Amino acid sequence: NKNIQNDRKYIKNTNVRVGLPAVCFVWQIAMVVLFGVFIRYDEESDTHWVEFRRENNITSDIENDFYFRYPSFQDVHVMIFVGFGFLMTFLKRYSYGGVGFNFLIAAFGLQWALLMQGWFHSLNPETGKITIGVESLINADFCCAGSLIAFGALLGKVSPVQTLVVALFGVTLFAVEEYIILDLLHCRDAGGSMVIHCFGGYYGLAISWVLYRPNLHLSKRFHGAVYHSDLFAMIGTLYLWMYWPSFNSAITDHGDGQHRTAINTYLALASSVLTTVAISSMSKKGGKLDMVHIQNATLAGGVAMGTAAEFMIQPYGALIVGFCVGIISTFGYLFVTPFLEKYLKLQDTCGVHNLHAVPGMLGGFIGAITAAAATEAVYGAEGLRNTFDFEGEFENRTPGTQGGFQAAGTCVSIAFGLVGGVCVGFILRFPIWADPGDDNCFDDEVYWELPEDEEIVPPVLEYNNHMIHKHQEISESNFSVDQS
Amino acid sequence: NKNIQNDRKYIKNTNVRVGLPAVCFVWQIAMVVLFGVFIRYDEESDTHWVEFRRENNITSDIENDFYFRYPSFQDVHVMIFVGFGFLMTFLKRYSYGGVGFNFLIAAFGLQWALLMQGWFHSLNPETGKITIGVESLINADFCCAGSLIAFGALLGKVSPVQTLVVALFGVTLFAVEEYIILDLLHCRDAGGSMVIHCFGGYYGLAISWVLYRPNLHLSKRFHGAVYHSDLFAMIGTLYLWMYWPSFNSAITDHGDGQHRTAINTYLALASSVLTTVAISSMSKKGGKLDMVHIQNATLAGGVAMGTAAEFMIQPYGALIVGFCVGIISTFGYLFVTPFLEKYLKLQDTCGVHNLHAVPGMLGGFIGAITAAAATEAVYGAEGLRNTFDFEGEFENRTPGTQGGFQAAGTCVSIAFGLVGGVCVGFILRFPIWADPGDDNCFDDEVYWELPEDEEIVPPVLEYNNHMIHKHQEISESNFSVDQS
Amino acid sequence: NKNIQNDRKYIKNTNVRVGLPAVCFVWQIAMVVLFGVFIRYDEESDTHWVEFRRENNITSDIENDFYFRYPSFQDVHVMIFVGFGFLMTFLKRYSYGGVGFNFLIAAFGLQWALLMQGWFHSLNPETGKITIGVESLINADFCCAGSLIAFGALLGKVSPVQTLVVALFGVTLFAVEEYIILDLLHCRDAGGSMVIHCFGGYYGLAISWVLYRPNLHLSKRFHGAVYHSDLFAMIGTLYLWMYWPSFNSAITDHGDGQHRTAINTYLALASSVLTTVAISSMSKKGGKLDMVHIQNATLAGGVAMGTAAEFMIQPYGALIVGFCVGIISTFGYLFVTPFLEKYLKLQDTCGVHNLHAVPGMLGGFIGAITAAAATEAVYGAEGLRNTFDFEGEFENRTPGTQGGFQAAGTCVSIAFGLVGGVCVGFILRFPIWADPGDDNCFDDEVYWELPEDEEIVPPVLEYNNHMIHKHQEISESNFSVDQS
Questions:
Q1: Full-prediction pTM beyond 0.95?
Q2: H or E element at residue A448
Q3: Is residue A476 classed exposed, middle or buried when 0-12, 13-18 and 19+ CB atoms within 10 A define those classes?
Q4: In chain B, N or C terminus with fewer CB closer than 10 Å?
Q5: Which band of pLDDT confidence, cut at 50, 70 and 90, is reported for residue B453?
Q6: Residue A132 pLDDT
Q7: Per the CB < 8 Å rule, is C255 touching A89?
């Protein structure tokens, strides 16, 4: 049938039957071996904890770090798998790919993250072992977030094998830039405005730029939402929005650190919602709201507070951050994404530029300014030292200097994202990855067994359908319609 | 095209392009200013916590209130945004409005709630500042819940600007009645049967009564569910149901208080499910279950335990409460809602009368009875004092007196709901709010950019559709069908 | 109309209008009475806690068990109601039954579980009372899980009354086998590989085997997914996957016990995802992924770690477990389920054989091996004693002996599942339960009031539909199509 053949001529070979299992198996076996060599429980998750407790005069099991961080860990875990996953179900026929590949990337990446972050941060030089606890799990989830953000820019245009390559290099680059920013530059970035969002956003954009598809319009029929797919995406949005205070506070200091971070993030997010609604309504005929804005720009407040939330930015400061970044993000969806696509040949499926790259970058600079403005009068001498960790070799660093380093850290994350992304992009252009053709992007058909999508009809309607069909046949034969 | 014009004749001007952004911006700017003037971190979220800890001999960071309440806070947060939000997606074409306006109201209301509740409860007379911590965030979420309940009665019949007005006055009224009930009358109401559900329910009903639409039947085509919209609503139901123990226990006393409240709520909810299923099945031909009952009346046990759950009502007492209120709520959906609509001209979209107003009122009285029946034999002398907070000026209050005040508190909440609702209803009748016409209620089209709702069809079907269309054109021209 | 009558001839009497309410009411009243006689608050949820604290030198309210376990309890609660519930929404027209009956079974079962488990484990011989706290609630949820797993094998083929019978006997059998395995044999099984998954799986399979329907193919039109139903099921999958670390660690020892269990489960689950994807992709033309595998086999790692996760299996050990069991589970879906159906006449709707029965059994044996291999060198003397609870009459048990008992425990759970299931199956074959006919399985129509499932169309399309209809009438009359 000619018509169908025409439709199919742009399709590349998308068979992943060898590649995908091979990568998964090789990778998982490598993980088993490397975990066997390197990874052990830390003193709080080892059966020797009872002795450790006694030796360190810890009075109660409740002071195990598990009880400080596990609830936040679970919230972060939900954000990674349900939040990011369902946020990417908005396309009418790529919901399986959105939530399913997100699942695959994260499960793949978190194992590699435990190793990479372990080597950089917690390798015991004597034993040669990395010890892990609940904070390691949170950091592994964070590390995957960078690659999931990048996936947002590529959604629908890459094969599952490519997503794993994105994750493999993404996690590796993340661990390096994180080491430079947090350890060498001694920046504070608990919620990851810089190391997660800014890096992840630019990483994804750079890859997408290299993978530009001039004929993507051939997949236009799949490039949009249907009523219920947008509602599934709202599940993702809301879980990200609700749990963002946990995301930012998950690894901040015990006590006031976690407490204050949660409050600031909560407020910034609330403020983002109002300005997003305002700009979205202003931009459309009749003041109608656009689901794309509500799903995404409302979250910008959380991204932009990733660095500064643990500082004494004050509640009104958090509101101001959310206010501004909600506006900026919505404007991004309205004007910048189309501009990027038209003039910079950059196709950004989920608009990660507006939700992660720019708010993350702004978050880094907001953090720099807030840090530079810190004073003993506000923080207290001890509070200042604790908050910025002015200890050891950094004992004499001033808030002003800290601010400079924070700003430098933001630039490092952008550089890593862009340069790393361009390199990974070129790797992904090799014609071996079974990516979809230009007319088959955003289509789950390519990588998923799809159910027959006919709704069950009650017998009466079935009967009617039958009759309509019969009637068509008759009338068609009568008029001898040309079918070419 | 005449046909279409006819369809449109009932439509009012629903343009919110000026009003909605204006309200959002003005409001958010006001919040920034007021937060700047009034709101600061409390001692547990401030960097001075380390000094506070030392001064107060607090041995560990784990005794920061954050660790007592943050997991419950996050559960409450999920209830507010996903629970209430998705519960209101059950209509076939108002799911965006349900979940989206819920999101907007709550993000708008919680900021105002922090201020209002702060002025009444935690304004430091010396510094003129309100200090906030995790308990304030929980209370702010609670405060929004009242307005979200009211929104349930109005769902589909108001504009987004009107929802914000409902929230503005709702939060204000809430803070006042809460102050009267909890502080002046010294009632206990941790889970808010009185202050949240009873108030919110009657507030919404009163508004809806004033806004009665005699021609609402013109929107009948939108007034119902489709298969998947009811499934989305079940997400809301289940999250409300599962997290209700956290809702009721979030701000009760540390230790046994939170523990007992969670147990009682858990039991009452389980009991509600069984009686709801029983009545629902009895009421329909063939014993078929009705999703409206399952989605709503199963939650009545949580509402009705809002006051008494922290008392020693005993596990069997909790089961009895759930038992009765599940029956009452389901009967409400079967008989009272239709009665209210027909004879009292009260249109209650989500049936908040049956889920919040009545079970909340009953919960208030159950609390009164349980309090009046409290004895030292059961509670212990110290336990009785702690549970009812018989301290300071209330040192000599007896359980019997307390019961009387609890009952009085319930009446106060009803009065505030009804009177406040009528006033707000009249404000909402001004013809400036861009509310939908009678034939366009329950329709997302009015305030949302909707996606083209055509499912993607594989090439073969697309081809068939093409042919059907072609054939139609031909036959239409042949028979020259009249199109008027 | 003949056509319709033919369709209906296999339908049995499915009227539950008397049976369902009767069971619910009788049951719920029995629960009220039994709770009244037996159940009270334990010392941590009673108002006397303040005295208990003082007497036992507990320094802070934070050491109330509530704060150790409540966050995990809520995660388990979500798994039971949303996880299991939505996992069973995958069928195109049985989503209400999946999530709704799951809700009913669990709410019904948890009350009975509190009593049954209480009688076996915490009946105070002096007072004759059972005292409950947060750990009891977790155990009650666990106890229901066994029956919910069994429901997975029966999904779509039983009436709601039958599901309650399954739960009634399921909970009873569970309490007995749990008592034998945990108390008499002194096995460790915190996450319930044996007592929950292995038992529940074989219980469901045995019932399903007895209830074999030779003409189930008559319901073939309902036996499959549609695009969005599979996406709803992914909500269930992800919540189970994310919260499984909480499931396994909810009742393990305070401190390192909970901490280590969460880490091991997290790793095993991640590993399962990769091997599931690999096998799923290898098995299909073009390497396409199958949603059934992704929804189910990815969870096998959590099931298989239910026993061993609290032991020092080491991180790489957890990865190996996930690796193997992901493969085994996916192979089960590919080959074993069709084999069972064809040759053993065993219809297993959700494939609980592959997700629960086999991984649970393997988990039991993995636990046995890990226990037998435990040494003081790895655990420390004190750690070994704490982990395996070698105290009291079991003081002198060696790890090797413990391993033997663990293996024996697994066999006990299989035996209870199979024998109990066969008995319950025969009870369910009495013709009094109003189960659906062979041509009406997997159809919500039978037990639910369903909404009219027509999407609302905007006026223009409505107009077009109108015209199409008109045109049909005309052409039909012209060609006088035979309608018989």
A1: no
A2: strand A448-449
A3: middle
A4: C
A5: low
A6: 97
A7: no
